[in-house]
Amino acid sequence: MLEGFSDEIIRLPSGIKLHVRKSGSGPVVLLLHGYPQTHICWHKVAPLLVDAGYTVVLSDLRGYGDSDKPESDDEHFPYSKRAMAKDQADLMLVLGHKKFFVAGHDRGARVAHRLARDYPNIVAAVSFLDIVPTEHMYAQTERTFATSYYHWFFLIQPAPLPERLISSDPGYYLTTKLRSWGKGNDSAFESEAVSEYIRCFDAASIHATCEDYRAAATIDLQHDAHDQGTLLKMPVQALWGEKGLVGRLYDVIGVWQDYAEHVEGEAMPCGHFLPEEAPAQTAKALIKFFRNCA
């Protein structure tokens, strides 16, 4: 998978090591994955961006894949979106990219949101795939959301409850998530990709990813509250799956207009996993957006 992409572990000035893949030439695009996946979720989209004339950087978020999984603390700060976004800002500086485009899916979109908030001078434009902001989703919680996204409330329970339960059969848990959020479109997930997701979903990653969600329900909300009323000034794109929960529950464009000055977007013909369920349409939308922002 991702033939022609480099494969390396890069140590950041902080000491954190990230698993990074890159390829291509031209304007730079950073792609960030979600839960419970790795950078491999972009394996269908990334080559299309390279073919369209972009330099593509793929990174496993801290706590995921083959990137470091640092010890957390009582406030969950090491897995705050602020800490995770700083990793990506530091990575791009190490790679020599002073300004770049960002696209993030799921948790990666939440990291991208914080990256755009904390480092607006280096993010040229940002695309959020199948999310609305964390604080909005929590504030609007109702039965449909709590039922479909029950993991938002399960994973934040004190350790080691969710960790022990998931670890009893991590492969079953992970593949059930893909099947459920992908609306049963099993053919979208290549066996090699699923095997890689399962390989990386070990005890350390299960704990780290729970910490990601614990941070989202605590310290991330504090950081978001501090930024309330401050709009992103760079161009923002929102993409969502027309069969997924986000598009059904929220006026996606309308919500993002409360967080950014310039918002555009559209639904993709799929469930939650846009990069794998609708890769051609997702790549086309990203390319059009980034070209218009150049």
TrEMBL record:
One of the Pfam families matching this protein, by short name: Abhydrolase_1
Coiled coil: none
UniProt keyword annotations, A-Z: Hydrolase
Domain of life: Bacteria
MF GO annotations: hydrolase activity
Domain AB hydrolase-1 intervals: 27-278
Record bears the keyword Hydrolase: yes
UniProt keyword Nucleotide-binding, yes or no: no
Name of the protein described by the UniProt record: Haloacetate dehalogenase
Organism, as annotated: Jannaschia faecimaris
